[in-house]
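User: My advisor, Dr. K., asked me to get a structural model of this assembly before our group meeting. I'm new to this, so sorry if the format is off. These are the inputs:
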Amino acid sequence: MKGNLAKLRASIVKDARILLRDRQALILFFTMPVLFVLILSLSLRDVFGDRPGATFPVLVVAQDRQEVGQGIIDTFRNNPHVRLSLDEDASEAEARQWLIDGQYRFVVLVPAGATEQAKRRLGEVMADVPVELRLERPVEVRVLADPSLRSDYRKVLEGSLDLALHGIEMKLGREQLEQTLRVTQGTHFSGLPDFDQARLFLPVHGETVTKGVGGPTPTSVQQNAPAWTLLAMFFLTVPLSVSFIKEREQGSLFRLQTMTVPPWVVLGGKAVPYFVINQIQMISVLAVSVYVLPLLGGDPLGLGNAPLALVLMGASASLAAIGFGIAVAVFARTTEQAAGFSSATVMIMGALGGILVPKAVMLPIMQDLAVISPLSWGLDGFLDIFVRGGGLADVLPEALALLAFSAFCHAIAIARYRRRG
Amino acid sequence: MTQHRCASPAQPGDTDARAPAIELLGLSKSFPGGRAPALDGIDLVVPRGGIFGILGPNGAGKTTLMSILGGLILPSAGSVRIAGHDVLTESRHIRHILGLVPQEPAIYPTLTARENLDFFGRMQGLSGAYLDSRVQACLELAEMTGEADQRVEQFSGGYKRRLNMVIGLMHEPEILILDEPTVAIDPHSRALIHHRLRELNAAGITILISTHYMEEAELLCSDVAIIDHGRLIVQGSVPELLARRRDEAIELQFFSEPDGALAQALQAIPGVRQVELAGCRMRISSDRPELAIAPIMQRVQADGPTLRSLVYGRASLEQVFLSLTGDRGELR
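Assistant: The format is fine. Below is the predicted structure of the whole assembly, which you can bring to the meeting.
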């Protein structure tokens, strides 16, 4: 056994050397998932949009800071999806340029003297001045929007602005009414009831109805970071299986067989360096998602509160991927066969497992089908941690499923490897 | 060469000095879907101490035989014993005794020569100072100490084959099996490999080599076995086999074409059966060539063009081989 451990160590050193000398492949292993996460998290941010943590940069150019300007500012300030910026004297041209530059997604222009204008208009209304004789026009609060802002989110923002303006109308109207009543009723006037304390309807709160595990759905980065880490891990099955078959073609594997080197030494030598690469892939993707993505305007990734669960998921996903790669390597006849089969299978498993398209937007029947993909198990585990705040116990089912898959793949690979013609 | 064995302690019964190096008994191998068996009831004993050649045309079953000896494939019937140990059931004992050199260089191209030797040495269970000394010794055997730290992918075919051979020697085996070790190789590397094989043999290592180069077998081997269609056709020492077929013809080659008159004149010499003329070459069949040669030479010198070469009485292993394997005997 001690002798075999020394052989395993030599085998690991050999495979690590071979891997480290393939610089281009190494660069690809690490940049591919990181770039995918950056690009897709940023470009798909709004697709995942109305989710906890997803926000839009909104600029309010409030040249009026009285009731109208302040009312609008307060409305957006209280909206959790809005990252509010304020400006008092930016021109419309400047605001347009900022939109084009992508600095803001939505700009509200509150004209100077808006409150005064609204009050004069209200005065004419209350005095029952005939429409055709009114001097004051309604205040125009203008809105500029980024064309890439999804139309439903744009409607939401415009709607909340409309609601804000309605509120301001009500408030100004009430004040005007109060003033008029105070003049006409004199000391008999005891004030209007507090409408805020006498709402007729409860505020609307929609409940999300999800299948199975309830709770929030992921943001763009919460979906993309684990998704592309998993896909990158499973894509290593291509170089892993190819390197194994190359060894068979070069005859070095046969040489090892004649030396009666046990299969677990040969396979372990390959598995360990690839396992390390998988872990570095995961760490680099998570680091980029936590630290770099926010600098580029994306939502930061929260890693949850269960580092051990994260380690367990990373390790079991990697072992599943390595097992799959080794099984492909042992059964495939040529490198072309191995590369073609493993990359196609990984893509299909990725598509099925909610990696390429989030499971939340799939038809229910496809969501059911996702269960057959190991990548789906991995993704569910990571989402348990990132989105649902799960811990070790919550990811255990997914981790065990991945480990069982890995054990199955390794078992059939070793059985096949041992078989002699 | 130092005579201590590999680092792992030798196990009792590892080597039985009285047992032949290799014994095949009724060895057969059929592949699924194969029309005829690849090996068909081969009985063969390779004695200790010599260089034994396995000869055969393409598809004769040489590589199948080598794969069975290396434990890579299982025989369909029969038994294989190496140094008295069964290949199937006692492979652990054989590992220390046997060195196997596959036909294609089985080495890692992106590792250096030294790293390849070190890795395969460790896989044989070597370690520590003994491993280092074996790596150095093998680099010297292959005459590549200067290239030890170059990646193998930069090597020529000859260098790769030399490295391929010495990897099989890392653990100082008693029996070395080489599958066509000099295919597609430069003359210098071939000469070096031949030289090393003779040295190793002189140091007491039994060598089994498969080849389709008849000259190589003639030069190198003490005994040969010829197989064809998976069957053992003949086995014996090289001189024995050569004595079986002595060519009775006299072959002349001239610098210019001789005329028909010379051929007629030679035909008239007593003992000459037939004279065939093809361009500058003439082949004279004779019942008593040792008597006919003198008058033939006299007549040629008197009437013929200048003589370029004369071949008489030399049988080659190639001729033996061709006569035994028939028309299929053309070599790769």
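One thing worth pointing out at the meeting: Residues 187-202 of chain B form the longest helix (16 residues).

User: Perfect, thanks a lot.
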